Amino acid sequence: MIAILLVSHGTYATAMLDTARMILGPQEQAVAVGLTADESPDQLRAELVRAMESFQGTELLVLTDITSGTPFNTVVALSGQYPFRHLTGVNLPLLIETLICRQFVPMEELIKSLLEKAPDTFVDVDGKFGESRDGGEDWEEDGF
């Protein structure tokens, strides 16, 4: 099963995961982390590191809320240190689809399916950056 890490501003990630659990039932290997107004980006980074380390040995898909926001940028900064895939632009229907399908399909098939279902919603961060995970210049050049 693919592990899911939701990352957002405020309580959005937690609320989405709680709502998905209400609809689908308990969800193993799914964690939500939000950057609150009283937290620094360094505190968010520490929370993300703890969560990512708890999923070591498991395929991890990170879903963020807004392209180029602090949660997004913090996840991108960790991409060179931890193995995971990253999609941004998550919403509740896509989260539910992810939670259902992650048990039955491989990571790349899941990502392809999600991108096909919501091409204007989800952005494949890894595909945008390509193989290079050490810089954001390409992101800026593409107008994002």
From TrEMBL:
It comes from the Bacteria. InterPro entries: Bacterial_PTS_sugar_comp, PTS_EIIA_man-typ, PTS_EIIA_man-typ_sf, PTS_IIA_man. Residues 1-122 form the PTS EIIA type-4 domain. Keywords: Cytoplasm, Kinase, Phosphotransferase system, Sugar transport, Transferase, Transport. The keyword Transport applies. SUPFAM superfamilies: PTS system fructose IIA component-like. One of its GO terms (cellular component) is membrane. It holds the Pfam family EIIA-man. It is found in: Cytoplasm. One of its GO terms (molecular function) is kinase activity. GO terms for biological process: phosphoenolpyruvate-dependent sugar phosphotransferase system. PANTHER family: PTS PERMEASE-RELATED-RELATED, PTS SYSTEM MANNOSE-SPECIFIC EIIAB COMPONENT-RELATED. This is PTS system, mannose-specific IIA component. It comes from Enterocloster lavalensis.
